[in-house]
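Below is a filled-in request sheet from our internal design queue. Each sheet records the structural input a requester submitted and the sequence that came back. We keep these sheets so that new team members can see what a complete request looks like end to end.

REQUESTER: design group, bay 2
PRIORITY: normal
MODE: inverse folding
CHAIN LENGTH: 193
BACKBONE (tokenized):
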């Protein structure tokens, strides 16, 4: 939360102008593009961060992000921990689109302790080849085995069936989504496992 060092736009050389650091937070005013932490890729990791979002806002945390001219957005290849204003979101959502979901793949716990827009939440992702676990505000939201038969079936019949590179990477960058909403991040910490 002190500088933007290490962060840049997805498939870009610099940070989009809508992203900045202020008062210990990394934030976007929206419509500037997704960003990645480009200093190093991560394979197995434990990631923790805190976030708040504007009313009706939508964003996400991505991992194992691949870059290249064949990709136009993070979601084309990287799994997403969904961040959303669950309480004030204006559109109807599928169960695997709520905060704490593995977007388009796994449904979070029904009793999600998500806070209202403008209030700080905490999220955690622990990734190993045997188990992936997501937490929201200290409560476990879901867990799954990456690349398992169940995972492959969900990929083939769901939103990602037309994205052959979705989730294939065993290592990659960490990304934050600018989905057109104001969102703030702080206390971003990652530990390789």
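RETURNED SEQUENCE:
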């Amino acid at each position: 939360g002190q500088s933007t060092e290490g962060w840049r736009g997805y498939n870009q050389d610099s940070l989009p102008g809508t992203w900045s650091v202020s008062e210990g937070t990394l934030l976007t005013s929206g419509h500037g593009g997704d960003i990645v932490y480009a200093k190093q890729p991560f394979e197995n990791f434990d990631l923790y961060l805190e976030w708040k979002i504007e009313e009706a806002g939508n964003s996400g945390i991505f991992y194992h992000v691949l870059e290249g001219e064949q990709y136009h957005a993070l979601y084309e290849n990287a799994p997403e921990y969904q961040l959303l204003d669950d309480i004030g979101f204006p559109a109807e959502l599928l169960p695997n689109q709520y905060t704490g979901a593995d977007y388009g793949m796994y449904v979070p716990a029904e009793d999600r302790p998500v806070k209202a827009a403008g209030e700080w939440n905490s999220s955690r992702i622990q990734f190993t080849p045997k188990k992936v676990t997501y937490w929201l505000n200290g409560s476990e939201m879901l867990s799954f085995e990456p690349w398992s038969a169940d995972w492959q079936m969900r990929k083939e019949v769901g939103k990602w069936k037309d994205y052959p590179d979705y989730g294939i990477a065993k290592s990659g960058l960490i990304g934050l989504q600018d989905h057109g909403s104001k969102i703030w991040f702080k206390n971003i910490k990652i530990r390789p496992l």
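SHEET NOTES:
- The chain has one domain: 7-192.
- The mean pLDDT is 97.
FILED BY: M.R.
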